[in-house]
Amino acid sequence: MGISAAYFTNTFVLSWTTNELHMNRQTMLYVLLALSVVQFLWQPLAALISERVGEARFMVCSLLANVVVAVPMFLLINTARPVLVFCGIALAMISGSGYYAVLAGFLARAFPSRVRYTGISLSYQLCSTLIGGTTPLVAQALLTSGGGSIWPVVAFYVALLLVTTACVAVLARFMERRTPSAPPVAATV
């Protein structure tokens, strides 16, 4: 979802707010700039928090928080009022960038060292191409086919989040099983 969220916000939301909601493009670019500052400040804090609660738990909680704020985010964006648009996207950005802050380290531990670079690169590139890159196209198609209704787009956004959450949970469980337990310590005389 990390890649999809970036494409979703920087491509689809920019297009939606400027074309359908008739927001001033420059104003929307300022909103996105301010949001990038929020993300820049939040991601390191999110990484620190994840160290305390555990990566997988933090990622799942971040993604589920993003599900909870999905409807308010879209409703606030739909107002076309810059401050409310900022608040709506900021809600999703805080939870989404929290997940993204932890993703690289999580994926690094998901692959054995002999295939780590290839595994991470392949998963990132395939996700970028197949899911992330098509996210704005699918969202726009849903918005258009829904006659401008945001609800099909909300459903799509939530579906991406839930699939990502399930994948993180399954991968975390797989990683737990794969990690060998420490051998018993022999008593020394």
TrEMBL record:
Transmembrane region(s): 28-49, 56-77, 83-108, 149-172
Membrane topology: Multi-pass membrane protein
Alphabetical list of PROSITE patterns matching this protein: MFS
Keywords, comma-separated and alphabetical: Cell membrane, Membrane, Transmembrane, Transmembrane helix, Transport
InterPro entries, A to Z: MFS (IPR011701), MFS_dom (IPR020846), MFS_trans_sf (IPR036259)
Signal peptide from the UniProt entry: none
Annotated SUPFAM superfamilies: MFS general substrate transporter
Keyword Transmembrane among UniProt keywords: yes
Domain Major facilitator superfamily (MFS) profile: 1-189
Coiled-coil intervals, chain numbering: none
Subcellular compartments: Cell membrane
Highest taxon, organism lineage: Bacteria
PANTHER family: SHIKIMATE TRANSPORTER (PTHR43045)
Protein name: MFS transporter
Protein source organism: Streptomyces sanglieri
